[in-house]
Design goal:
Length: about 500
């Protein structure tokens, strides 16, 4: 993330304006400090900070802003709190939060930002060499290449090694792939050093020579061959007529992009989060402590814990924070009919709740008004969300359905059919099991190893991710939405398989 941009800071200096500097910290301690900008109440900090980002975790950040008078004297201006997921999911990569202190109200506002992340570009290239130095007494050479990425401190880190081509001075190496970040860490002009060696069985490989290039220079090979002279510094110093130790030619160079979850969000895809909660009688009477719906004065129910564990992570990426929430498997008022997709807020026209807290409030209210019954049917709510997802298929919307259940599915055939149909739509399903029941059926819906099928049709992709949650234990199942969101704008139809 590229730092932050506080605005309208409190003026702490008598004869000038404040000299703000900032600390960015997280749980466990400070991890970064910006530069100090003199005499301004609206600083633009430019120092960048690199953070490890995990979609499945809630990563809380705290920004502290100070007026720095000297190295030993600083006045605290305020602090702001934000989750990293909120920054990633914010529009245009900018997120505003008020600066506050314990003793006072707002002291200005903090604007945190994140760089627009690049896709994970993968390079495929092929090289050959010509007239390399002969190193073997009874043969020619057994050449191979070693690629090194340069580091900020001037050192080099090995990032790739080609295969060995035996007994030749004119080798042609097989094409290989390497992530751009591994090659140059995203800096297209960073030096890439390539060493040429003659392989020896005992491991004492003979150095033939070296040359340097960059990702930007390599990429020009997409339109023309690029030839590099292989130089041996020692031979160059000793021999006045030394020209080179051969040449290496870049025969081909191509780049493909592998888009990440963040790329989809930054590309404008909106995440829509829907919740479905199991209200069947197998969960036990909500008034009894043995029930999975039982809410004691001291802790939330198993269902509420599961909802918070997943929902509080996903909600950072849902821009409007309005979540449709349904129940299934209960008799609902006023006529007592069994429903498998009743709105928790009792509003058929608008089943959306404000944030995860709104979903929890509606869930608790429904427990007081509906009668737990059965059976446990998943298909109706899956078809409900699939119908909404089918309305917008241009990549601008993606739907995630969270189903929380005690594990016994009554309509397995219909559920499989619904999932196979939904697999061509921009949606995914997270199924979280609570309680001690067996969950083999959930694993059957997961298509990690065997693609789900129904009536001779196979799912176009795996859209189900099962997980399990119990009191005090949450395994953090990977979100099902991340591997197969549509690519940002550029190539939507093939990835969604709609054309």
């Amino acid at each position: 993330m590229p730092g932050s941009f506080p605005r309208n800071l409190l003026d702490m200096d008598t004869f000038s304006k404040s000299d703000p500097g900032g600390w960015q910290s997280r749980a466990g301690g400070m991890f970064g400090r910006t530069e100090v900008i003199d005499n301004t109440l609206n600083p633009d900090f430019v120092r960048k900070f690199v953070l490890d980002y995990y979609f499945e975790e809630k990563q809380n950040l705290r920004f502290d802003v100070y007026n720095v008078d000297s190295k030993s004297c600083s006045d605290f201006l305020g602090q702001a709190f934000v989750a990293l997921g909120e920054v990633i999911g914010s529009q245009r990569g900018r997120l505003e939060r008020p600066l506050t202190t314990e003793a006072a109200g707002a002291r200005g506002e903090e604007v945190a930002g994140s760089d627009s992340p690049c896709p994970q570009d993968i390079v495929t290239m092929q090289l050959c060499a010509n007239k390399l130095d002969k190193k073997d007494f009874f043969g020619k050479s057994d050449p191979f290449l070693v690629f090194y990425r340069s580091n900020e401190d001037g050192t080099f880190t090995i990032c790739h090694k080609t295969e060995v081509v035996k007994n030749t001075l004119n080798p042609v190496w097989q094409p290989f792939t390497i992530p751009v970040r591994a090659l140059c860490n995203g800096d297209y002009d960073r030096t890439v050093k390539i060493d040429v060696y003659d392989w020896d069985r005992d491991g004492s490989h003979d150095f033939i020579g070296e040359f340097a290039t960059s990702y930007r220079e390599l990429s020009r090979a997409q339109s023309q061959f690029t030839v590099y002279e292989v130089l041996n510094p020692r031979k160059k110093c000793k021999k006045k007529k030394y020209v080179n130790s051969g040449t290496v030619t870049l025969l081909s160079f191509s780049v493909e992009s592998e888009f990440t979850f963040v790329d989809y969000i930054r590309g404008g895809t909106q995440l829509n989060f829907t919740v479905a909660i199991d209200f069947t009688a197998s969960n036990g009477l909500p008034s009894q402590p043995t029930s999975l719906h039982y809410v004691s004065p001291y802790q939330l129910s198993a269902y509420a814990l599961a909802l918070k564990a997943v929902g509080e992570i996903i909600q950072d990426y849902d821009s409007d924070k309005l979540f449709p929430a349904y129940g299934f498997g209960a008799k609902v008022p006023p006529d007592g009919k069994i429903s498998h997709q009743f709105p928790l807020n009792n509003n058929v026209e608008n089943p959306s709740c404000a944030g995860i807290e709104g979903v929890l409030e509606s869930y608790l209210q429904s427990l007081r008004t509906v009668q737990l019954y059965g059976p446990t049917n998943f298909a109706p709510v899956i078809n409900q969300v699939a119908g909404i997802a089918a309305q917008v298929t241009d990549g601008s919307q993606y739907h995630v359905l969270l189903i929380i259940t005690d594990g016994v599915i009554s309509d397995m055939l219909q559920t499989k059919e619904a999932i196979v149909t939904a697999s061509s739509l921009p949606m995914s399903i997270i199924i979280v099991g609570v309680g001690p029941a067996e969950f083999e059926a959930m694993e059957e819906l997961d298509g990690d190893e065997v693609r789900l099928s129904s009536r001779g049709r196979y799912a176009e992709r795996d859209i189900v991710q099962p997980g399990r949650c119990s009191l005090g234990q949450w395994p953090r199942p990977a979100p099902a939405c991340t591997p197969f969101l549509p690519a940002p704008r550029s190539c939507l139809c093939p990835l969604l398989r709609l054309c």
